[in-house]
């Protein structure tokens, strides 16, 4: 019964993720653990500023059938298999239909400079050309702008690749906080 409950909670409600890189420093450091809501976007669409977990670009998941993926989820839930590292965590900076660019050290969306209070003061965003975010996609960036593999490299991500919204940092205990 406990295994079934763990699988159901992880699959449909929330899941813990470990931060594998420094792309979201200072908000999230390597080794931090966050709880990701799988239900957040059943209530509303992604918003600018949300920290999201999504499938790694190019990882369409088709190589494993439904049964195989189900077995993987069960094994991960009971700790017999290491969780996938094929997800990224980034911040949404532009939404479908918007034009985003890096200009004068800042992110500019539809001609307006975006205020990003979560960045370290003095953070400079390298210039990148204007990109129109297609319908059904999001433009995502890491907070550590000089050390992040994000939409500037792999382009806007499909909304349907979003696993969920990161809600809270739970580890280490001294850094626990809502995101």
Structure explained in plain terms:
The protein is an alpha+beta fold. It has a single domain, classed as Umud Fragment, subunit A (Ribbon). Helices cover 17% and strands 32% of the residues. The protein is built from four helices and twelve strands; from the N terminus they run H-E-E-H-E-H-E-E-E-E-E-E-H-E-E-E. It has helices at 2-12, 40-43, 66-77, 151-154, and strands at 14-18, 33-37, 51-55, 87-94, 99-103, 106-109, 112-113, 128-132, 137-141, 157-158, 162-171, 177-178. The strands form two sheets. Strands 1, 2, 3, 4, 9, 10, 11 and 12 form an eight-stranded antiparallel sheet that branches. Strands 7-6-5-8 form a four-stranded antiparallel sheet, with no helix packed on it. Strand 6 and strand 7 form a beta hairpin. The longest helix is centred in the middle third of the chain and has 12 residues, at 66-77. The model is unreliable at 60-65 and 76-84 (pLDDT under 50).
């Amino acid at each position: 019964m406990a295994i079934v409950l763990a699988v159901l909670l992880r699959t449909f409600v929330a899941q813990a993720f470990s931060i594998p890189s420094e792309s979201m420093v200072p908000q999230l450091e390597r080794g931090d653990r966050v709880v990701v809501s799988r239900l957040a976007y059943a209530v509303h669409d992604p918003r600018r500023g949300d920290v999201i977990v999504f499938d790694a670009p190019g990882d369409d998941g088709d190589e494993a059938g439904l049964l195989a993926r189900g077995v993987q989820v069960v094994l991960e839930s009971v700790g017999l298999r290491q969780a996938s590292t094929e997800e990224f965590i980034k911040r949404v900076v532009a939404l479908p239909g918007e034009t985003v660019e890096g200009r004068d050290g800042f992110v500019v969306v539809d001609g307006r400079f975006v205020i990003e209070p979560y960045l370290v003061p003095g953070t400079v965003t390298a210039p990148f050309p204007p990109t129109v975010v297609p319908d059904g996609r999001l433009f995502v960036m890491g907070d550590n702008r000089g050390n992040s593999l994000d939409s500037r490299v792999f382009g806007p991500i499909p909304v349907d690749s979003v696993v969920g919204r990161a809600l809270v940092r739970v580890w280490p205990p001294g850094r626990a906080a809502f995101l």
